[in-house]
Specification:
Strand content of chain A: over 45%
Number of helices of chain B: 0
Order of helices and strands of chain B: EEEEEEEEEEE
Distance between the termini of chain A: 41 Å
Oligomer: heterodimer
Helix content of chain B: under 10%
Largest sheet of chain A: 6 strands, mixed
Radius of gyration of chain A: 13 Å
Largest interface: A-B, 25 and 25 residues
Strand content of chain B: over 45%
Structural class of chain A: mainly beta
Largest sheet of chain B: 7 strands, mixed
Radius of gyration of chain B: 13 Å
Number of strands of chain A: 12
Number of helices of chain A: 0
Shape of chain A: globular
Chain lengths: 113, 114
């Protein structure tokens, strides 16, 4: 069965520093991987997805994610964090049929000024 | 950017009562979903809907749950007899394509069952 794991409940980083939010996956077949962000009192917003191709995927708001097949990881990264990046980040994988997303438990990113 | 709209934002109900959560998906989207998030836990898939039929449902989506697209714009989730454990944030989402595509989520309805 498809699953994702986000090993960190919270990531703290200073503004201007690079950030990484970790995600590992377990799938049967090809992985379809996503990152979503949730700001307070808002719905989840799509950041980026990996289906095939380049291992470095670029997304919204300057975020990117690195797909690593050997480590079964799909970490979210940004070279220089902003205070406004503070939010809850979810990694997700498509189910085998591609008809639903299976989410991780989320990682709270806190960027301090 | 177009948005998925959910109403109400908060719903409080007594255990055993029926609730209907409403969603207006993005107008040209054809694939609709409900997810829920119990406080402090994962976002969980409930059901997907296409062409006036359920495409897929999770184990959570038992006989107490139903979905409907009563007209060309609304998409509803009904819980017939609410339980305490149904308390959660319920998210509606829509997509213009079938598989492994970007979902657009609403802001959610916080359901509290007392």
């Amino acid at each position: 069965a498809q699953s994702v794991a986000q090993p960190e409940d919270q990531v703290n980083v200073a503004e201007g520093n690079p950030l990484t939010v970790k995600c590992t996956y377990s799938v049967s077949g090809n992985p379809y991987l996503f990152w979503y962000v949730q700001y307070p009192n808002r719905g989840l917003q799509f950041l980026l997805k990996y289906i095939t191709g380049d291992n470095l995927v670029k997304g919204s708001y300057g975020f990117e994610a690195e797909f690593n097949k050997s480590q079964t990881s799909f970490h979210l990264k940004k070279p220089s964090a902003l205070v406004s990046d503070s939010a809850l980040y979810f990694c997700a994988v498509g189910n085998q049929a591609g008809t639903a997303l299976i989410f991780g438990k989320g990682t709270t990113l806190s960027v301090s000024s | 950017e177009p948005e998925v709209t959910q109403t109400p934002s908060h719903q409080v109900t007594q255990m055993g009562q029926e609730v209907i959560l409403r969603c207006v998906p993005i107008s040209n989207h054809l694939y609709f979903y409900w997810y829920r998030q119990i406080l402090g836990q994962k976002v969980e898939f409930l059901v997907s809907f296409y062409n006036n039929e359920i495409s897929e449902k999770s184990e959570i989506f038992d006989d107490q749950f139903s979905v409907e697209r009563p007209d060309g714009s609304n998409f509803t989730l009904k819980i017939r007899s609410t339980k305490l454990e149904d308390s959660a944030m319920y998210f509606c989402a829509s997509s213009d394509r079938a598989r492994n595509e970007k979902l657009f989520f609403g802001s959610g309805t916080q359901l509290s069952v007392l």
